[in-house]
Batch of 2 targets.
Target 1
Amino acid sequence: MQVLHTAAELRAALAGRAGTAFVPTMGNLHAGHISLVELAKQHGQPVVASIFVNPLQFGAGEDFERYPRTLESDCEKLSAAGCDLVFAPDVAEMYPVPQTFTVQPPDSLANDLCGAFRPGHFSGVATVVLKLFNLVQPHVAMFGRKDFQQLLVIREMVRQFNLPIDIVAGDTLREADGLAMSSRNAYLGASERIQAAQLHRELATIAAALQAGERDAEALCAAACRRLKMAGWRVDYVALRDATTLQAPTPASTRLVVLGAAWLGSTRLIDNLEISGSPSTQ
Ligand code: PAF
């Protein structure tokens, strides 16, 4: 497996390749990332992973500085998973000049849910992903469903800019107690780690109630928020949305998703559950 740090090296290594399958990451890899590499391998093209902690998608006071940088062990995991090439640029390589051209996702996707609490985040994500797409020129790229809003932003960017790239969604991998795997789980202290699975349980409770015929989604989400707060969480949101548009569900919605974001101490966790069977809601 090649590990390259510059755009020039990457371009030279990819010259003449018919296509690649791409897994963009910020490193500190867990089994969820590796499952995306395995998914990428199914496409029969060389697999390229990137490892880059992108400053553009972190707001002031967020965890850019403390985000774990674990290049060596990440490369071991990627090599064992059969990845062919890792692109691990530094900030100066990705942003040799200030990034004054940026991608602005539509307000409806970028400024709602996580975007409402992390202004500029999805613009930072879309901008770096577009740059990475331009560098790697993949035919297919993998994104986890765990970052559901991000997945929709990327899909819409690909659609609106006519990028010739298939976006493939990988399922969320979970710990035994249901906690969604995330690089940020490493921030949790021992008792927070035990408590952390409550976010998934609350979303599962909402999904189960809707599937059992409960129609008042707002009341279900409000009750979940109350229970989280009583247990010591600081809740950004718990919301039910149309899984295609991320807008409030309408009678025409065929797929729903319940999403949540909340803080345990200084750690912000997100999770979501797609709900099959399109239960009707108020
Ligand atoms: O999901 C992530 O790890 C990041 O947001 C991504 C897509 C690699 C862009 O920095």
Target 2
Amino acid sequence: MTSARIIDLLRSGKTNDSYIVRGWVRTKREGKGIAFLELNDGSSLQGLQIVLPQTIDSYDDLIKQITTGTSIEVSGTLVESIGKGQRVEMQAIAIVVFGTADPETYPLQKKRHSIEFLRTIAHLRPRTNMFGAVFRVRNACAYAIHKFFQERGFLWVHTPIITASDCEGAGEMFGVTTFDLNKVATAGKAVDFSQDFFGKPAFLTVSGQLEAEIMATAFSNVYTFGPTFRAENSNTSRHLAEFWMIEPEMAFCDLEGDADLAEEFLKYIFKYVLETCPEDMEFFQERVNPQVMTNARKILDEQFERVTYTEAIAILEKSSKTFEFPVQWGSDLQSEHERFLAEEHFQKPVIVMDYPLGIKAFYMRVNEESESGFNGDRQTVRAMDILAPGIGELIGGSQREERLDVLETRIRSVGLNPEDYWWYLDLRRYGTVPHAGFGLGFERLVQFITGMGNIRDVIPFPRFPQSAEF
Ligand code: 4AD
Ligand code: MG
């Protein structure tokens, strides 16, 4: 008898063949001299119906032991199902119980649980329909991302998790130290980081971009896919303290090329997920968010909108909407502005380009022409953000400043020391090229595709202020 995954049996298992399946019991129904189990092994939303005839060895014992959550192995014969909702079911010949789950205490009983409650049992929620679907789609997204870049000859590069530089310059970094903080605190003197593990202050990275740029100036096209960390104290449904980011970086590429790749990339991932996870996507449409399929179709069928920051400001100013934060050229777009543009105005993803220099990171290429002439008061940089309905900012990217003198000036003007960025500046000293890239927040992508309302529910073990359980 061969072991099989439930999804394979449901799709293509041969009737009258015998198989072994293993998994966790979702439900048990007892009839006269017969019992039905729904077994799930995580391979698909739908479980396999197991029919237990009374003639099976130790029937009474088994029926007592097996409850929701019990882990079992079933050897049996696949037969055509006369019941509704499934092509095949399994006639059990023998069952082994691995572990029982006391119905008095096992939290996942048949009834529907609130998503907030399930968040408190993140060690058990993967066994529910909803989280099964979320994590299968998350997996499909990750695979599609690698497939997309590998098919196009991009090199996957591994950038460091511990770093001494603040890529985004936003000061939202977690420190990394081997100092005993209790002792440091009582000493009463300034901390001497030269005595610390790395000989200087070190942090968890907020982005792999700077190192990706190094690799792009050797391999032309590269991407990162790794964890990033931000100590921003934002308790929102779009922020995590630990999240995954995908950052492609392309030499010989400008902002338009960057935006083209980002659009093609998002379309590719959606297409792959719709093809490989149709049942999970149907589940999200029916049970989570009725916009899911409309959104997906729009992504596939329509071009993204493209506007400049200045045009976006004009749209916001002309709208009759009242915003909590003022709309003003030079201020960063707030989440409410971003969502108005994507959800209400364009009703699809929109790429906003050429943001004011004053609100963006030092590495972005300074536009030669400002809105009011060269070096005028409306100086902009070659930045782009992709805003998505229901999400707001999904992607942030830019063409990079490849001119040594301009970059040095920018580093100084944001209060950083060019000496700390000597290796980054060397890339402009030796064989500099126009180059561009972007960062896609992986969890925001999964949120966008599944329609899940809170980012804490699309990562298995979310990290956010006051929470690092599991
Ligand atoms: O816009 P950000 O800060 O851009 C960068 O880090 C650049 N270095 C990327 C690049 O050009 N290579 O972040 C990129 C994306 C955001 O658009 C957002 O989707 C996501 O990362 N993101 C977060 N996701 C979850 N929780 C947070 N706290 C996030 N902060 C940013
Ligand atoms: Mg950003």
